[in-house]
Design a protein that fits this description.
Layout lengths: L5 H13 L3 H9 L6 H13 L3 H13 L6 H14 L2 H14 L5 H13 L3 H8 L7 H13 L3 H13 L6 H13 L3 H14 L5 H13 L3 H10 L5 H13 L3 H13 L6 H13 L14 H11 L3
Helix pairs in contact: 1-2, 1-3, 2-3, 3-4, 3-5, 4-5, 5-6, 5-7, 6-7, 7-8, 7-9, 8-9, 9-10, 9-11, 10-11, 11-12, 11-13, 12-13, 13-14, 13-15, 14-15, 15-16, 15-17, 17-18
Length: about 325
């Protein structure tokens, strides 16, 4: 391969990661004649985005060994990797390094630190990071909102969501999903309806992730009719959408509705997952109608085999 300037090499590494060719990206990085902070950051970010957080942290340590100074993007990526790996020790060390280099007030570094402490079940430290200054970025607020929910502090999570609305900060899809999940855990359909109303005003109620959370909320609270209305409004349904409404119907005694939806899902050629093959059929079996799903799976022997094993078990 002829020698290229570093920007071209970096672009190739980025392209490999974007297309899921992780090993090729790493190999290319290793043979680069010269690496700058963008090169290192691309690999650190790419590895973590593909679930290889341990390698991400090793790469960051190598970067420091080569005396390359991280930038804000590097710190945001490596702190996210610490959060995913639940490595509080290294994360705390990097936090101190961030303060030393003056990157603490970068929006994405702040959000990553909040997530790190929340993932490691130190949500009070998440709040301390958040409280260092006032924030107007939805990413930072959503990190705290999600962190409280992850730590089962759902009242605080919903308070954060309410504060966002109060100061005029528009929530995004992740904000709504986290707030709805907290409402669901509290089984508070009234709070859920209020959040639903805000989502409708912002046009996010038909987003697949928001819609799925609404379906789960209404189903868990026993309001299947509203769950079905939300489900029908989702223009691009994914497997989570289908699983949520089918299991919700079956759990609350609407076996025929569940079977009808299951048949629609199969006819739509939706790629099923383990929840589809376990939760749905087992619940349908209890309604003595699950076995009828077979006629919709005649063209998919693997799917039919999985479902048969489930439905034939006592």
């Amino acid at each position: 391969m002829p020698q290229r300037d570093v920007a071209a090499w970096n672009a190739m590494i980025y392209g490999y990661f974007e297309n899921g060719r992780v090993d090729e990206a790493v190999k290319l990085f290793e043979v680069m004649p010269y690496r700058n902070v963008i090169s290192w950051t691309s690999v650190i970010s790419g590895l973590d985005q593909h679930g290889r957080s341990d390698e991400t942290l090793l790469t960051f340590k190598k970067m420091l060994g080569f005396f390359v100074e991280p930038n804000s993007s590097t710190f945001a990526s490596v702190i996210t990797a610490c959060a995913n790996a639940r490595d509080l020790g290294l994360g705390s060390e990097i936090h101190a390094y961030v303060v030393k280099l003056g990157y603490l007030y970068d929006t994405y570094v702040t959000a990553s630190l909040i997530t790190l402490y929340a993932n490691c079940m130190h949500v009070n430290d998440s709040y301390k990071v958040f409280s260092e200054r006032s924030h107007t970025n939805v990413v930072v607020w959503t990190s705290l909102l999600t962190g409280y929910g992850l730590n089962y502090n759902h009242n605080e999570a919903l308070k954060v969501f309410g504060d966002m609305i109060r100061i005029g900060l528009l929530p995004n899809q992740s904000s709504f999903t986290s707030a709805l999940n907290s409402s669901c855990e509290m089984e508070s359909i009234d709070l859920g309806r209020e959040i639903h109303g805000v989502a409708v005003k912002l046009g996010l109620n038909t987003d697949a992730f928001v819609g799925n959370s609404l379906v789960v909320l209404y189903s868990k609270c026993g309001n299947i009719n509203d769950g079905l209305v939300v489900f029908k409004e989702i223009p691009e349904k994914n497997i989570v959408s289908w699983n949520s409404i089918i299991v919700g119907c079956a759990q609350h005694g609407y076996g025929n509705w569940a079977l009808t939806l299951y048949a629609q899902m199969v006819r739509s050629r939706v790629d099923m997952d383990d929840i589809t093959f376990t939760g749905g059929p087992l619940l349908l079996k209890k309604s003595d109608i699950g076995i009828h799903c077979f006629k919709y799976l005649a063209d998919d022997l693997e799917a039919m085999s999985k479902m048969f094993r489930i439905l034939s078990c006592d």
